[in-house]
Amino acid sequence: MVDTTQRTDEELATLVYLYHPTTTPPATNKYTRVISDLLQNSDITDVFPGGAADATALCEDAKRVLERESAVLDIVVTREENLIIVGDIHGQFVDMLSNVLAPQLDQQLPHKSVGSQEPYREYKFLFLGDYVDRGPQSVEVITLLLALKIEYPQHVFLIRGNHEEAQTCRMYGFLQECRSKLDEKSGKGVGSLNMFLTSGAWLQYNMVFCWLPLAAVVGCPSGMFFCAHGGLSPRTRRISDIKSLRRHEYGQLVEPTSSLYMVSPRSDQSEEVSSTDEKSIIDGLLWSDPEQITGCQMNFRGCGFLFGHDVTRAFLDCNYGYKLPNVREGKLESPVSEKPELQFMVRAHQCVSEGYCWGHDGLVLTLFSAPNYCGMSHNKGAIALLHGDAQVGKNRVALEFRVYNGASALRGRMCSNSGTTALDNPVIGNYFSDDSCAGKSMAAGH
């Protein structure tokens, strides 16, 4: 990996940035070359010539950034700011470049900016999880996102999905991809661990996954809303309870005494949440799905829950009066809405045919950003755009949606990295069918 902190101004001028380096400079400049190369879809073996060793360095730096964040992110979007909310990516790297990052990236490319009549808008990003598995370039997706998080910690926000968990991403492609792209490149084993069973790079990425926040609250001039990857559980009540969870212990591969993990003691507040409740809450945030039922039922996925309209309404009502911080980095924020209620929930986790879908009478928005999922679903992808200036004077948050088809480079490419398609692989095929991509129609509205 090339460290750009020692590069000349002339060399730095050749880099491609997601944000203008003058107005929004990188925090460390350590990963600007990695970001630039990946934004140009360079081969990961060129980006990380050291293989697993380079991935390890990235993961250690990303962990230091993420462990300083709360389990629930408080994201304030002022009237001068803009936010893009992103659903599942699942290793579809070309689609992430071509569609998800495009509103910001296109403004930075010279051939796009010359003669452009569009006013410049800087976008922040909130990703709702499921970065890896199934798609052909999971390593590239998570590597770029972690590098962006390190360099732009107040512009790129990442929360955890159910595939950012070792037992899941061991089975559905990410482990195998790490071995083939990073561990074999480095030519090194992983100590006493059998290379057939695991991967040094994969272990490091999973260390980072344990520190990803679990949820977010977004506030803007027209109100607030809650975001998570999956949904709710019978034990999910107060956001303050979620903030107290020891998220880094969920799904970790080693004992808490390992040097890979920093275990912090429970706070007095977190003692109110039992270990059983902790698991139920996190299972729900990562795995649950909204359904037209009353209360909660066990999920057919085998983890998490199906939750009804009444559960969504109760959670939003329980957090009436939630206060977003009005200070960021020591500076007083521009005013945001003083409306005390959470208006709705935004989540990902389910493939929907049009890329987004409202359910529970406008209380739940499902967002899915991987078009033509697994190369065979024919669904559209979507991202949600929140423009701060458009919220001024409104009584309800108004999201815009950008809907897109799959990038041509991914059409027909399946999820497995073993040479078989997802349809040919019964394990992947069966699990894919359980993700309820097949045209499940949630009630549109809002």
Strand content: 15-25%
How many structural domains in the coordinates?
1
CATH topology: Purple Acid Phosphatase, chain A, domain 2
CATH superfamily: Metallo-dependent phosphatases
Strand order of the largest sheet: 1-5-6-12-14-13
State the name of the first-level CATH class.
Answer: Alpha Beta
Q: Low-confidence stretches at least 5 residues in length (pLDDT < 50)? A: 111-116, 189-196, 255-270, 409-446
Task: Please tag this protein with its features.
15 helices, Purple Acid Phosphatase, chain A, domain 2, 446 residues, alpha/beta
Ordered list of secondary-structure elements with their pairings:
Layout (H helix, E strand, L loop, with lengths): L8 H4 L19 H8 L4 H4 L4 H15 L5 E5 L5 E5 L6 H8 L1 H7 L1 H4 L9 E5 L10 H14 L4 E3 L7 H4 L4 H13 L13 H10 L5 E6 L2 E6 L10 H5 L31 H13 L1 E2 L5 E3 L6 E3 L1 H10 L8 E2 L2 E2 L9 E6 L8 E4 L4 E4 L13 E7 L12 E5 L21 H9 L12
Parallel strand pairs: 1-5, 2-3, 3-4, 6-12, 7-9, 12-14
Antiparallel strand pairs: 2-15, 5-6, 8-9, 10-11, 13-14, 15-16
Helix pairs in contact: 2-8, 4-8, 4-11
